[in-house]
Amino acid sequence: MTNAPPLKTELMALPSLAGLSQDGVEGLVQGGAVRSLPAGAALFVEGDPPDNLYLVLDGRLRVTCATEDRTTEVVVGVAERGALLGEMGLLGGRSRSASVRAATDCRLFAIPGDHLQTLITDAHPAAWFLLRAMRTQLVVRLRTVDERVDAVLEPPEPVELPTNRRRGIASLLQDSEAE
Amino acid sequence: MDRHRIEGIPSFLGLDDRALASVAAVMHERAYPPGAIILEQGRRMGGVFVLLSGHVRVERRLPDGATVDLVTLGPGAVFGVLAAMDGGPRAASCVAKDEVVCGVISRFDFMELMQGRSQTALLFQVGVLRDLYKDLRATNRRLVDLASLPDQQLALTQVDDVFGSLG
Asked: Between helices A113-121 and B119-147, what is the axis angle to 10°?
């Protein structure tokens, strides 16, 4: 704990909170706390009740969703310094829709959901910066996930493969009949 | 537009009467016949739409030219938000399935609300974000469902590699 800059300085230096004022950062620090997470540990798991909003101070985390049969974990996002995590469950007020695990040792700033709510209803300067960070990140995520769905979505393929195979067998039969 | 017209809209449930009135004040009513293209994928024009009555089909054209129906929206739905927020091209087309009436907020007025720092503006922003998170949940779910198809495993692994290296 020798070289870490003061928390307020660290928060104000995050690109996602650029321009955060002194009273804004006061509001954040009053209600939140720093949390360390070792590589491999889960921050939260799909289905958990939402508790905190997290700001990544250091490190890298992976956001994954499991397939329905739980055989495959699909990476739906990567979070690094400045990224927000857990905002989706908090604002939606439902369970966590994805799992988040630390890919490296991480430090996060945790803001409890009820503190976030208070900041918003009080129109505290910190609330505007958090909401701006959320929408900037959300727009990028939505655009990225649309492109990824396009990349894997080829409607004819699952249907066409067996048809092709059948056509292949049919043509073999015709060939052998012709012979 | 009268604030009563948008009172039951889920995205605006957090707004008090005063906030609702200021949102309604920048909203204009527009009607569309069945089959009308309300928003066209790839275009950059238009504002944010609140579906007051009727149904809207959301369809996405894929790079190979095929079109996939994504969802049908009913009264109370809000659409066109993503492109209004980033000024980018529309991610999908929205087509009237029957007689449709929308409340339309221009991009300028929408951004005024999205950038405002008053309590009204912040509550409006939360409502909009909530809607978009719902979209993201649904799209993530689609992506994950696609991953369950055996043919897609390889493609997804490759995309993961690209995604990981970008992160």
From this structure: 140
Which residues, 6 or more positions from A117, have their beta carbon under 8 angstroms from its beta carbon?
none
Beta bridge partners of B51: B102
Residue B119 confidence (pLDDT) above 80:
yes
Chain A contacts of B148, Cβ < 8 Å? 67-69, 71-72
On chain A, the residues whose CB falls within 8 A of the CB of B141 are 65
Asked whether the beta carbons of residue A76 and residue B122 sit closer than 8 angstroms, the reply is no
| Average pLDDT score over residue span B75-79 | 92
pLDDT, tens digit, 9 for 90 and up, residues B130-144: 888 888 888 888 878
pLDDT tens string A53-111: 999 999 999 999 888 877 788 888 899 999 999 988 888 767 888 899 999 999 999 99
B151:A158 CB<8 A: yes
**B82 and B44 in contact (C-beta within 8 Å)?**
no
**Which comes out higher in pLDDT, residue B98 or B161?**
B98
Contact A76 B143 (CB under 8 A): yes
Instruction: Report if pTM > 0.90.
Output: no
Q: Which of B119, B147, B166 lies closest to A123 in CB terms?
A: B119
CB contact under 8 A, A145 and B139: yes
Q: How far is CA A132 from the centre of its chain?
A: 16
Tokens of B93: 């087309």
Q: How far apart are the C-alpha atoms of B122 and A120, rounded to whole Å?
A: 7
